[in-house]
Amino acid sequence: MQTNFENKVTETYERAFRRGELYFVESTIANITENDIEFEIRFAPSLAKKPTAEQTEESPLKHKADPFAPYNQELFVQEFENHVILLNKFCVVPNHVLVVTKEYEEQSNLLNQEDLATMWYCMMQTKSQSTIAFYNCGSLSGSSQPHKHMQVIPLPSNVRFSPPINAIIYKYQNKVPGEIFNFSELPYVHYVTLLDPQQLSGHHGHNYKETVSQYLTENYLSLVNTMAEGFRASSLTDPFSYNFLMTHTWMMIVPRRGEKYGQISVNSLGFAGMLLVKSEEELEFVKNVGLLRVLEGVAVSKDKDQLIDNIHISV
Ligand code: B4P
């Protein structure tokens, strides 16, 4: 049984698609196993033809048009306090939504309590599929639009461990919620924390939204602070770009040092274990080089001498 939110998303999606206001991008999936994790590579050749942010139909010149202000009414799902919830115009997975600030804010800003509350609202209101929420923060994070926006994407329900990174999280179930740790299986610096189901359950009466969003914000900020402390201690410049991922049970943050590895542009979904490639050459490149090597190439390698001593990596 779909919620009102899901009905609204589906109706808007179908109407926008029929009217040619939204593009569904065909893709195929190749699986690749490294370090016992089955990763997913999504091959979407027609995306290579998508106009870039600098050159859209509305703005063929070199100045950037903001697609979220004004936003396309055909993609509008609903308002939620300081945000509008829009459908992604170029979706690889149907019903992929964007949570966009009503007032312009920079994509390099920290998430605030209202951002996290709206991301959580979209996740909780999507009951017929599992979802992952993410934020591509900063210019090296794989983001293409500078107006602050978070994203929530449905995941195929037939995948047992979805997203693929869930295939390893069960090994870390002894971690106390709130403790920050990392996966020894991954070669790049990242920080993970498990969420406490008690704190997220509906047992907080009328204060539910406030209590949950405060809890999510505390956990998000403690990941950001741990990342920043690690970089300060290593005397490297703070990364101002990172990817943030959130499911119903965990959060993860991955600092970025590069936007692309070769031709491959990586966003948060790459670190969920779902990498996107746009040509046969890119697909072959990832298979030859190794997917973890691609991710390590745009993140911070755990092997970097200066980092290994200074960034606290607990397992
Ligand atoms: P950004 O944060 O700026 O960047 P992004 O998600 O990496 O998207 P990008 O635009 O760079 O897309 P890419 O070709 O790599 O997000 C901007 C968002 O706004 C995007 O979702 C974009 O599609 C959307 N958008 C642009 N103009 C819009 C408009 N006028 N109205 C509404 N929305 C608009 O990748 C294409 C898509 O595939 C992205 O959505 C990406 O998130 C998704 N994707 C990546 N990996 C995937 C995977 N493994 N499986 C499924 N989908 C995947």
From TrEMBL:
Its source organism is Rhizophagus irregularis (strain DAOM 197198w) (Glomus intraradices)
Q: Could you tell me which residue ranges the ATP adenylyltransferase C-terminal domain spans?
A: 185-300
Per the record, the GO terms for biological process are:
nucleotide metabolic process
Q: Where is the active site?
A: 149 (nucleophile)
One MF term in GO for this entry? ATP binding
From which lineage does this chain's organism come?
A: Eukaryota, Fungi, Fungi incertae sedis, Mucoromycota, Glomeromycotina
**Name assigned to this protein:** Apa2p
Which residue ranges does the record assign to the Ap4A phosphorylase 1/2 N-terminal domain? 4-169
**What InterPro entries does UniProt report for this protein, alphabetically?**
Ap4A_phos1/2 (IPR009163), Ap4A_phos1/2-like (IPR043171), Ap4A_phos1/2_N (IPR045759), ATP_adenylylTrfase_C (IPR019200), HIT-like_sf (IPR036265)
> Which PANTHER family does its entry note?
AP-4-A PHOSPHORYLASE II, PUTATIVE (AFU_ORTHOLOGUE AFUA_5G14690)-RELATED
